[in-house]
Amino acid sequence: MRKNFRDGRVGGEIQKVISELLRNELKDKRLSAMISITDVKATKDASFATVYFTVLGERVDHDAYEEEKKDVLEALNGAKGLIRGRICQELQLRHAPDLAFRVDESLEYGRHIESVIRDIHDKETMSFEKIADVLDEQETILLFPHKSPDGDALGSSCGLAFVLRELDKHVHVIVDESVPVALQFLDNGLILKSSDVSRHFQDGYDLAILIDNAEPTRLPDGAKELFSKASKTMCIDHHITSTPAYDYNLIDSTRAATAEIIYDILAEYVEEIPEKAAEAVYAGIVTDTGRFSYANTTPRTMEIACELLKLGVSPSDVSKRIYQSNSPAKLKIEGLVFDTIEYLYSNMCAIAYMTQDMMRSVGAIDEDTEGISEALRSVRGVELAIFLRETEEGKVKISMRSQDFFDASQLASHFGGGGHKRAAGFITSKPLEEIIALLKEQVSARIHER
Ligand SMILES: [Mn+2]
Fold first, then answer.
1. Would you say the pTM of this structure is higher than 0.85?
2. Chain region(s) in the chain for CATH 3.10.310.30
3. What top-level class would CATH report for the domain 9-116?
4. What topology does CATH give the domain 328-447?
5. Which of 411, 431, 448, 429 is nearest to 353 (CA)?
């Protein structure tokens, strides 16, 4: 028996079926983007339907976004057979409707997008209570902060892991690189290299948690392999580009730090957060907010910090450990780098560089060079700071920071790199002098546009 649909009903039904398929079954890599079916206009007899969709994401690069939409369209067309079959089945139709996929470019898009994001958020991310329940059910857990872990990645991981260990879970934080000296106090015996993890874990374990990033592909190789051995996966992150693609997701891009989210989970999970865990969470917040000075700092950030102090955290201790533990080589290498500064275009641009020879001459290591880009940007009048460093492999790594208007990510993408408007970078095999000359050309063209 054929179903009769009221006006507009059939479109809504088809929309539900496709959304469900996108969420759970269509595994095409091109469909891993945040896709939303915004509308379906179908004929009354359900013989034909136009399906409107949008692709959400960070529009850093217009061309890349256009490419992405094209990819999604191709993938949807490729899955048309499956989608039609499912619609036929779910709506109990005799014949599957013919489908046409279109990008939704309606004027309502802007108004719509907010509710779409809210929708996805509600569907895909979980409550702190639910996350706490899930954690409680696991016995063996590994936490994975991102590559070259910073204060937030390590503070969040170690804070959560500390509590899990107190609750008798078998838990480690996996870091394959050396932990920066200034952050070693967060360890508390929790950090382990992937190669040192016991057989027990190598053969498989309950839960892997990605912390402060949503891409296991960005983990070092050993960690990546270990990540894949977990029965279930979880992601806790605050990056805007992250898509909730795991068994359990807690992604909130309104947060200043992943550590803020960890605080809320712990507050839900345990009666009282132990001081050591509170200290780690606090370290994550302090570092990701630039000691509460960046634009991401919110009233909620301060409230959480306040609660952490009440739990016994000493802000001066944490600050001393993180910010007053520079190596003797740090000021030496900074001296050498600052000596190379060139101010251009009425001091609007500052460029400085560092070679491996310079590092060797003062015995500096990578972590000694942290913060140099920010220091360059701190000069009055400097809109764009560019710091070039020679890598051990003889390439040149460029990091750029801008102050108010210069789009650093756009400049970086010109050279094949990427990032955010105010912080971006790229790597090149070109010699140092050549890339400096090329950068000057590009910066000059762009900075004078204004
Ligand atoms: Mn972070």
1. no
2. 328-447
3. alpha beta
4. Diaminopimelate Epimerase; Chain A, domain 1 (3.10.310)
5. 431
Written as six digits, the tokens of 261 are 């989210």
CA 292–ligand 1 middle distance (angstroms)? 13
Distance 258 CA to ligand 1 centre (A): 5
pLDDT one-digit tens code per residue, 372-424: 998 999 999 999 999 999 999 999 999 999 998 899 989 999 999 887 788 88
For 28, which DSSP code?
-
Distance CA 49, CA 65 (A): 25
The protein residues having their C-beta less than 5 angstroms from ligand 1 (an ion) are: 152, 212, 258, 288
DSSP codes joined into one string, 119-149: HHHHHHS--HHHHHHHHHH-SEEEEEEPSS-
* CA 219 – ligand 1 centroid, Å: 15
For residue 128, the tally of other CB atoms under 10 A from its CB is 17
**CATH number of the domain at 128-323, out of 3.40.50.1820, 3.40.50.150, 3.40.220.10, 3.90.1640.10?**
3.90.1640.10
Q: Find the 339 Cα to ligand 1 centroid distance in Å.
A: 31
The rounded Å distance from CA 183 to ligand 1 centre is: 15
416 phi and psi, to 5 degrees? 85, 10
Nearest to 425 by CA among 395, 405, 380, 445: 395
Span(s) in the chain for CATH 3.90.1640.10: 128-323
The three-state DSSP-derived secondary structure of 214-234 is CCHHHCCHHHHHHHCCEEEEE
Ligand 1 midpoint to CA 260 (Å): 10
CATH 3.30.300.20 location in the chain? 9-116
CA angle 100, 102, 106 (to 5 degrees): 140
Could you read off the pLDDT of 161-218 as tens digits, one per residue? 999 999 999 999 999 999 999 999 999 999 999 999 988 898 999 999 999 988 888 8
Q: What is the pLDDT of residues 19-77, one digit of tens each?
A: 888 888 887 777 776 788 888 888 877 888 889 888 775 455 667 777 788 888 889 98
Report the relative pairing of strands 396-402 and 423-428 from DSSP bridges. Answer: antiparallel
> What b/e readout covers 162-179, taking b as 16+ CB neighbours within 10 angstroms?
bbbbeeebbbbbbbbeeb
